[in-house]
Amino acid sequence: MSSIGILGGTGPAGRGVAIRLASAGYHVVLGSRDGDRAAQVAETLSPRGDGTIAGGSNEKAASCDIVVVATPWDSAVATVKEFKSLLANKIVISMVNALAKEGRELVPLYPPRGSMAAQIAFALPESQVVGAFHHLPANQMENLDSGLEADVVIFGDNDAARTQVAELVSAMPGLTAIVAGSMSLASAVEAFTAVCISINIRHKAHSYVKLAGLAH
Amino acid sequence: MSSIGILGGTGPAGRGVAIRLASAGYHVVLGSRDGDRAAQVAETLSPRGDGTIAGGSNEKAASCDIVVVATPWDSAVATVKEFKSLLANKIVISMVNALAKEGRELVPLYPPRGSMAAQIAFALPESQVVGAFHHLPANQMENLDSGLEADVVIFGDNDAARTQVAELVSAMPGLTAIVAGSMSLASAVEAFTAVCISINIRHKAHSYVKLAGLAH
Which of B110, B180, B207 is nearest residue A198 as measured by Cβ atoms? Predict the structure, then answer.
């Protein structure tokens, strides 16, 4: 089974993806600027099945076969640039959303290239950047008994990479992959996260996106 | 029951909203630049219940109590400007998405103020502009037997207007209103329509957005 590294993986978003990747059989490296802290966090996570979660440095995470970017949006580009050569010729999955709190709601921010995935792709010209995991509720992701059945919208310009990520996502418990299209859709997918979270704040809910009427 | 006018209502999107508004008991004026054409289209629509659909000019539609903007995106601002005084002190619902076809997919376009709803609000400073009806599949909207059960994301800066639109939407068969928040979310809601349609083109489906895990 492939190894999957998660840059900035110790936050709620990274932990949720880690536990469901490991429960699909993958060997996950939960990366952090502070490798000791990542090791401590990894020990608190109990995936099911044959996969594993080990904590380590972001460098160790970047050395895996596939790498997920789960850092805060404003450190994502700096982090991937630091490991540019390790990430070359690999699939890099961006789950980063640029969001800001504005009163009771979260609002989307648009980086110069329209989306964080496009910023990351620009910083990593030798990697295949694919977007996924944007709209997922972190705490339900982390709890394998939450009953989550979410659709994951996937986009990117490399068809083979997109397909490989879709297979990986659909192997994770509770998730169904839906390939939407190219990087031209990145801003729309990322920004919609602000809508999901704002709805959850306003309605005190943990909702997530399902696309009804799609044969899976 | 209030009267509701639909500017540019003879296209698939306008027809679908018209038939479900009329089926909720509203008196709908399907507006068009060509009033005779609108009258012909209105005759083809068979709502259920006590509501009615009459065709007419866009001016007649703009004279209703509440007005929906369903024109193509690139004529929306010109159309509402033409009826600015008729639309003053009214709720104006924007269902407009700025989208472009790019190969096999639809991609979002971002107008200068970020969204079509914001463009319309700027053109109509004396109206209460609310966004709704963006992600709905037009042909399933028009067919009352399609089994549609879609969530409608609603946004706007005027709380009372937003609440009134939410009540109106939830009265329509097959639709549930979800208030997301302010106009700061407009670009994200509108742009996500491109993702929905691109998914439908790619997967030959008629999917629509549901927010799972939300108590309705």
Answer: B180
Contact A113, A137 (CB under 8 A): no
> First CA to last CA across chain A, in angstroms?
24
Report helix angle B186-202 to A186-203, nearest 10: 120
Please report the pLDDT score of residue B1 as a whole number.
Answer: 78
ipTM over 0.95: no
Contact B212 A209 (CB under 8 A): yes
- Tell me if B36 sits within 8 A of B185, measured CB to CB: no
CA A189 to chain CA centroid, Å, is: 13
Gyration radius of chain B over CA positions: 16
Gap between the Cα atoms of A73 and A87, Å rounded: 18
Quote the pLDDT of residue A216.
Answer: 52
pLDDT-derived band at A91, boundaries 50, 70, 90: very high
Q: Is the dihedral of CA A64, A66, A68, A69 positive or negative?
A: positive
**pLDDT for residue B216:** 52
Residue B174, min C-alpha distance to chain A (Å): 13
pTM of the model: 0.95
**Closest Cβ opposite residue A181 in set B153, B185, B198:** B198
Contact at CB, B108 and A199, closer than 8 angstroms: no
Provide the token pair at A23.
Answer: 């429960």
Q: Is residue B57 within 8 Å of residue B82, measured between CB atoms?
A: no
The count of residues in chain A is 216
What pLDDT is stored for residue A45 in this prediction?
95
Rounded-to-integer distance, Cα B166 and Cα B168, Å: 5
Strand-pairing partners, residue A66, are A4, A91
Q: In whole angstroms, what is the distance from residue A76 CA to residue A58 CA?
A: 12
A113 CB neighbours in chain B (<8 A) are none
State how far the alpha carbon of B137 is from the alpha carbons of A186, B206, B212, in Å.
21, 6, 18
Give every CB contact of residue A159 below 8 A, 6+ residues apart in sequence.
none
At B39-97, the pLDDT tens digits run: 999 999 999 989 999 999 999 999 999 999 999 999 999 999 999 999 999 999 999 99
Residue B87 distance to chain A (closest CA, Å): 28
Is pLDDT at A33 greater than 70 in this prediction?
yes
